[in-house]
Amino acid sequence: xxxxxxxxxxxxxxxxxxxxxxxxxxxxxxxxxxxxxxxxxxxxxxxxxxxxxxxxxxxxxxxxxxxxxxxxxxxxxxxxxxxxxxxxxxxxxxxxxxxxxxxxxxxxxxxxxxxxxxxxxxxxxxxxxxxxxxxxxxxxxxxxxxxxxxxxxxxxxxxxxxxxxxxxxxxxxxxxxxxxxxxxxxxxxxxxxxxxxxxxxxxxxxxxxxxxxxxxxxxxxxxxxxxxxxxxxxxxxxxxxxxxxxxxxxxxxxxxxxxxxxxxxxxxxxxxxxxxxxxxxxxxxxxxxxxxxxxxxxxxxxxxxxxxxxxxxxxxxxxxxxxxx
Length: 325
What we know:
single chain; about 325 residues; alpha+beta; Glutaredoxin; Serine Threonine Protein Phosphatase 5, Tetratricopeptide repeat; 3 domains; four-stranded mixed sheet; disordered N terminus; Thioredoxin_domain; Thioredoxin family protein; signal
């Protein structure tokens, strides 16, 4: 692992920890979340929150080295964001430098923002409500700033839609609220945690579900139930049970193409685990056909390519065994 600026900063400026300055991403970052919100409100800025693992996460280190430590990034965000570093170091000495209070705060915020991978970059308004999320991106600091600006545009669309909804009634109000949620492209758990009241308003304003919002929400609940049951069957290696679950779920008329695409891929994974590579690749083709333009389609094609290589490797294994004999 390369020595990075953030590691040197821990050693050179440890006295600043108590003041709230962070080192995981360099000078100018804040570690106290409540202080960061107050600063953002006072300066009319948003929050850029970096959930990072400074001494173990390779992609976090790359993001620091390639983007956050560069002047074009600092200049590009200085008038837009208060930078917040929430570090999750693993080395005892770095945990000690971070302090117990900061560790407790960071764990609480990790749970609050449903962060499961590192680095996670969460963009929030000064109240701490998320409007965008991202992670490591290739291309350097200038491209990353452009990417952040695109995500910030989602916040403006959100706010404009909320303002329009405040002046509307009935289905039109529901449409504006739905537009606000879609503009942010947040994970479902974040929408549920931070915008649950908006979902309630949409359903009240659109009792006949002309927007399709309630139908989509019901489909997501079914997907979550499927995923929970599917994970249990995978852990118990019950391939037949998993295949049967997939077939039952696909008959549900409440699921659209993309939802069915995700469900059917569980069957492909089950076949792959049991060495049925031809069947798994056939399922991949069926999955792509369900929603060819979905975000998942390219990943499914990539998975199919890996299956082909796994099939080749499995076919070569018996030959290698015979040669050794």
